[in-house]
Amino acid sequence: MKAALCKSLDGPEAVVVEEIADPVAGPGEAVVRVRAAALNFFDTLITRGKYQTKPELPFSPSGEVAGVVESFGAGVTGLKVGDRVAAAVGYGGAREKVVVPAASLIPIPDGVSDEVASGVSVTFGTAIHGLKDRGHVEPGETVAVLGASGGAGQAAVEIAKLLGARVIAAASGDKRDICMAAGADEFVDYDTADLKETLKSLTGGRGVDVVYDCVGGKYAEPAVRALAWEGRFLVVGFAAGDIPKIPLNLLMLKGAEAVGVFWGEAVRRHPERHRANMIEVLRWVAEGKLAPRIHGTFPLAEIRDAIGVLDRREATGKVVITL
Q1: pLDDT single digits (tens) 175-211
Q2: Taking the alpha carbons of 170, 167, 319, 13 in that order, is the dihedral positive or negative?
Q3: Phi, psi at residue 302, to the nearest 5°?
Q4: pLDDT band at 174, cuts 50/70/90?
Q5: CATH topology of 2-119+292-322 equal to that of 123-264?
Q6: Which pTM does this prediction carry?
């Protein structure tokens, strides 16, 4: 089978496509014939050895796949050859066949394409885990999403709306249209506005119930200061590069919580919860309630070009490898 292989930590340009042996499913595992493998910004980092996950060389990029079950090992029930499935694999997805624990496979509903199904686990999976499992968002609450124009932020805007929240999107000024198209009710340009005062003003002085922070850096503290009583500050990522230091007295004075959202570890520890979340996300897609955006599709042979789109921060939706 063909596989995209990172054989040295020299970035996307060092990824090559080669023939390797077909995998064999062990007990509790399934071999999935990959039809689509989604890429994320972390693929630009993992190919340079700069990501928190550091697989042994050689490895394949792509942490999300969709395809069909080709075979499975002993002890697997509830699957049959030909079933359409999606899975989060961490890395290793950019190859024609992958071995996946059968329990982690998510059925793809009719009407949902392989390309779309391959690209929902990381962004929408993180959003539903953060907002539902960790943030306990309730209908009628107000959620502020920092970094709302990026892939993770847009997913959070959409999931928060489906959970019944009012959503305030915060991003740089030229990203307003992107955020509003994702379903945001209000927009804040956090590079020109006073973030704390604007969030307070938009909530009549009460403050926001939940902050979903994909950015960190200088935006975190003013967002914490804009929390309502018993608000929740969800720590999702640090796209700004700097990890902020928050004065803990702010949490005490607001009876508030700072909550870590570590989706990958949560999937490992609570696979059944992740499975339920992803079934719900794909059901929303099938019903037309979610419409994940695809920036572009590339054949496996052009994976370096595909990762380059992410490396240059040109993507306006998911970048997907088709096989």
Answers
A1: 999 999 999 999 999 999 999 999 999 999 999 999 9
A2: positive
A3: -110, 25
A4: confident
A5: yes
A6: 0.91
Q: What are phi and psi of 253, to 5 degrees?
A: -70, -25
Can you tell me the distance from the alpha carbon of 257 to that of 227, in angstroms, rounded to the nearest whole number? Answer: 10
C-alpha to C-alpha distance for 12 and 33, rounded to whole angstroms: 24
pLDDT tens readout for residues 24-83: 999 999 999 999 999 998 999 999 998 888 999 999 999 999 999 999 999 999 999 999
Q: Residue 125 is encoded by which pair of tokens?
A: 């999976």
Q: What is the 3-state secondary structure (H, E, C) of 258-281?
A: EEECCHHHHHHHCHHHHHHHHHHH
Of 224, 266, 227, 263, residue with least CA distance to 246: 224
> Which CATH architecture fits 2-119+292-322?
Alpha-Beta Complex (3.90)
What confidence score (pLDDT) does residue 279 get? 96
What does the chain come to in residues?
Answer: 323
